[in-house]
Write a structure and sequence with these properties.
Layout (H helix, E strand, L loop, with lengths): L33 E9 L3 H9 L11 E6 L4 E7 L5 E12 L3 E6 L7 E9 L6 E9 L4 H10 L4 H18 L19
Antiparallel strand pairs: 1-7, 2-3, 3-4, 4-5, 5-6, 6-7
């Protein structure tokens, strides 16, 4: 707390100093069985990152388990996600808040296979080193506790998923490609025997 003095012109010596990192004291989200918040610093302008993410049809370019996004209208979209055992799951999402260049929040719409919510936030780095990007994912996995265990074993729980998606988003935005250890879809290799 700032010092008080009987002299109104006395300097205040006890300053409140907060970190340049995100502060979420007022956010009370993640009421689902699985939730995670992850952050990354990306060396690109905030507006560029926001525009790329806001066009949801771009998301499968770096999200590993996201097969496709169909945009229904300006607020609603259907995300087709690769589920356990190769079964696709459809997430019907609606945007709940959209602040251009800064923030996008969404939640499950009527008819979604999975109850979910999330947000992504873009802020200029305080030291002029690009953009701080933070992603929040929260959902109830199908099959309850069993689904949560399966997601963890398959490394598809929100904590792992958010970290990987942000890492791939950073790679794509800074280098133009996402590095992978998978063999590219190319012409089959010829026989090594002559």
């Amino acid at each position: 707390m700032p010092q008080t003095s009987s002299d109104p012109d006395a300097p205040v010596t006890d300053a409140s100093v907060d970190s340049t990192a995100f502060l979420d004291r007022d956010r009370h989200e993640g009421d689902h069985a699985s939730a995670s918040v992850r952050a990354v610093l990306i060396n690109r302008p905030r507006e560029t990152l926001y525009r790329y993410w806001r066009d949801f049809q771009n998301l499968p370019t770096f999200m590993e388990t996201l097969k496709a996004v169909r945009v229904s209208d300006s607020r609603q979209s259907i995300w087709v996600v690769e589920g356990p055992g190769g079964h696709d799951v459809e997430l019907t999402s609606e945007i709940t808040e959209d602040r251009p260049g800064q923030y996008i929040a969404w939640r499950a719409a009527e008819g979604s296979d999975i109850d979910h919510e999330g947000w992504i936030e873009f802020r200029d780095n305080a030291f002029g080193r690009g953009t701080e990007v933070r992603l929040f994912i929260s959902y109830d996995p199908p099959a309850g506790v069993v689904g949560k265990v399966v997601a963890k074993v398959m490394q598809r729980e929100p904590r792992v998923q958010a970290r990987r998606e942000l890492r791939r988003f950073k790679q794509l935005m800074e280098t133009g490609e996402v590095s992978t250890s998978r063999a590219p879809d190319a012409t089959p290799r010829g026989s090594r025997h002559f």
